């Protein structure tokens, strides 16, 4: 059951001692109200209340008197217990305070001036109510308030650098809302919702609010301000210290709102949005930090990629906007948001999730304390249903599709959730992934084999082409003349077809003579008299030599020494033996046969 009471025990009443009884009447008279008088008045109120409860009448007057006397007796009893000493009251009354929570400390009592100290050091505030927003471990310590030079007892505040057990989250739109509007918060727990209750603390009063189930472990919480300037919402498990994080909503009267006004974790992106109420289109937005302009843009977004403690401060924005969705001719308006305190904090340490094997995950938290020895594993199925797994070990064997995450359990809180691991294997071991990997490797090796085969084939073809070209070059004697390999009995002729008398009997054109009648042809020379110089078919026999003799086509006018007739320069000859031409023998044999036939 939620109640608004100071955290910790009330200060015990000072024992009655002789020195206390000997207090002078002068010192008692200095007090605004005599303590003994208040004590007697409180007792009298209780007696009257009990007397009225025995009356059988149920008139409205009697009921009102009973209510008044009950309230008066409680107030006087509270004042008597404090003996006029101020008292520090923490609201809301959390079982434990976690980093990022909002806490209010009130100096209850009377008298001015008001002073606050933290661990003996004076604080700047002089109000009876001190709001601590987005607390961190830097807020830990003993708080003492002082009224009219009378100090309260120390109130100890301990902030745990951990996350609470359940998550209460805001929808898109931020924590600043116009008057009369509300937000629907989402509560995510690890067990059934029937054991959870949610609370709202508006200004100085606390209320219990209902949870609308949206699944087995998800609920919706309707959060409104109810005309309060500020309201804090959180949820708690019955008969337990387990609770959710805190969500604080703030009311604005302006048409422009700065979003969000929530804690920002260090080294994460900080995105601020200057939004116009009612869906107005922002055409230009100017963002301010501590009243200094830091960004002017044509849209309503300003992002700090990696926030640090240097980005702490009071932010606001100014927007030029139009309700163009209502009318294209809507007039431009300019408004400024309420200032919001932005605080960058370290936050709880984060867990880390790694993959040891195909289906084995390992959770760790290097920055966690030694008492964070067990772990919580969470699985979100493909249908987006999240559940906590029974395993509390450091490692987890996965066999179901979906996403996995973990966090360290530190007894009175948790680390931040780890990174998410997505598993898409077959139930029972993830063999499908192994098969896919093997197939990829086989395809890769096949591609390598094909490429190597193509390279080898191209190299072989290039070598063959080069060898053919080299052999062709060897077959040429130089210039444009093809070397003719001579054999012992080879007959060579030109392939050009002749006409008329130049055409030999075999249809081949004989080589033409030059003007020099004495030209000597060492190739296919023409013969003056076919009957004598040509053989059957009009072919000129080549002289067969054992060692070939070549002549150059010298065209000089003179005939130097060594030049043969016909204008050819005879190459230097070595000692060679010229054999008889077998074709001449064939010609002679043929002539003999023809002579014999004529005689016959």
UniProtKB/TrEMBL annotation:
The residue ranges crossing the membrane are 433-456
Q: Does the keyword Metal-binding apply?
A: no
Q: Where is the composition biased (Polar residues)?
A: 16-25
Which stretch is the leader sequence? none
Q: Which Gene3D superfamilies match?
A: Immunoglobulins (2.60.40.10)
Record keywords: Disulfide bond, Membrane, Signal, Transmembrane, Transmembrane helix
Residue ranges under compositional bias (Basic and acidic residues)?
584-600
Which Pfam family is one of those matched by this entry? Ig_2
Q: Name one GO biological process term.
A: cell surface receptor signaling pathway
Q: Where is the Ig-like domain?
A: 86-158, 253-319, 339-408
Record flagged with keyword Transmembrane = yes
From the Swiss-Prot or TrEMBL record, what is one GO molecular function term? transmembrane signaling receptor activity
Location of region: Disordered: 1-25, 552-600
Q: Which GO terms describe its cellular component?
A: external side of plasma membrane
Protein name, entry field: Ig-like domain-containing protein
- Record organism: Triplophysa tibetana
Upper classification of the source organism reads:
Eukaryota, Metazoa, Chordata, Craniata, Vertebrata
